[in-house]
Amino acid sequence: MSDKQLKPSTTETGKKPMEVLRPPVDVYEDASGITLHADLPGVSRDKLNIQVDQDTLLIEGEAALDLPTEIEVLYADIRTAYYQRRFALSSELDSGNIEASLRDGVLTLHIPKQEVHRPRKVEVRTD
Amino acid sequence: MFGNLTDLEGDLFSQIKRLQQEAESLFNIRPGPASIRAVRRGSYPPINIGATPDEVDVYLYATGINPAKLDISIQKNLLTITGERQTEKPGNVTFYLRERFDGEFRRVINLPEDVDPEQVEARYKDGILHIRIRRQEAVKPRKIKVS
């Protein structure tokens, strides 16, 4: 998987670019496939969008903060409510069967490998 | 010295802006001294602080923490949050990216002087820890009538 971040992020209508945060991720692979964990603080299930378009995996979410009215900002490390990140998936991954779960702002994806691509031991014949 | 460039911002222009801000802070171009308790941008967890005339709101962007293991204490107007965030570390796998913070953290925040340390509430939802501290009544602006 490689990162795609070449063009400025756009909203769905493709209008002007908005400021988005790339959430930090942990990605690892084992025999069954690839597992990804992403930090999406403030995102609940209804504000999460995960989609696969051909070979690109898109993760996006909108954070909801419990803000009192008329709040004045004193300090902000995070200045946007939008998270977005894309990954290029390689063809041996079964992108139609991604499992996703979201808990306490942590998104977990498991992208299985296509059956035919699971590692197979190769028997070495010595005759 | 520039920390983690893939850290927070998304597109190329924000990254360049961040680089500029990092360079500015390295060479002390930013006006005014920073708080002696201030931490580097990019420290974990990111925080936002806002205020209304009635209360001060602190938001910690800390996903996947156990709220029972958080230690939140307040002394006058000094708020201290100590906690731990553990990430999954399975054996026998190949890691490609490991960007999420793992370990213990502590943030010490200097709140406005008029907060009431007896009236603090904390709530953890969807990975955001929201701490509300009410401000003392006496400091609210009072209208004075001219007779």
Question: Describe it for me?
Answer:
The complex is a heterodimer of chains A (127) and B (147). By secondary structure, chain A is mainly beta. Chain A has strands spanning 2-4, 25-30, 33-39, 48-53, 56-62, 72-76, 82-88, 99-103, 106-112. Chain A has one domain (15-65, 73-116): Immunoglobulin-like (Sandwich). Chain A is 0% helix and 42% strand. In chain A, a hairpin with a 2-residue loop joins strand 8 (99-103) and strand 9. The radius of gyration of chain A is 19 Å and the shape is elongated. Chain A starts with a strand and ends in a 15-residue tail after the last strand. Chain B is mainly β. Chain B is built from one helix and eight strands; from the N terminus they run αββββββββ. The model of chain B is unreliable at 1-6 (pLDDT under 50). Classes of the chains: A mainly beta (127), B mainly beta (147). The interface between A and B is large, with 48 and 48 residues. Strand 2 (25-30) of chain A pairs antiparallel with strand 5 (94-98) of chain B, so a sheet runs across the interface.
| CATH architecture annotation name of the largest domain in chain B | Sandwich
| Helix-strand makeup class of chain A | mainly beta
Oligomerization: heterodimer
The total of helices of chain B stands at 1
Number of strands of chain B: 8
What layout of secondary structure does this protein have?
The complex is a heterodimer of chains A (127) and B (147).
Chain A: E1 2-4, E2 25-30, E3 33-39, E4 48-53, E5 56-62, E6 72-76, E7 82-88, E8 99-103, E9 106-112
Antiparallel strand pairs in A: 1-7, 2-3, 3-9, 4-5, 5-7, 8-9
Chain B: H1 12-26, E1 47-51, E2 55-61, E3 71-75, E4 78-85, E5 94-98, E6 103-110, E7 115-125, E8 128-135
Antiparallel strand pairs in B: 1-2, 2-8, 3-4, 4-6, 7-8
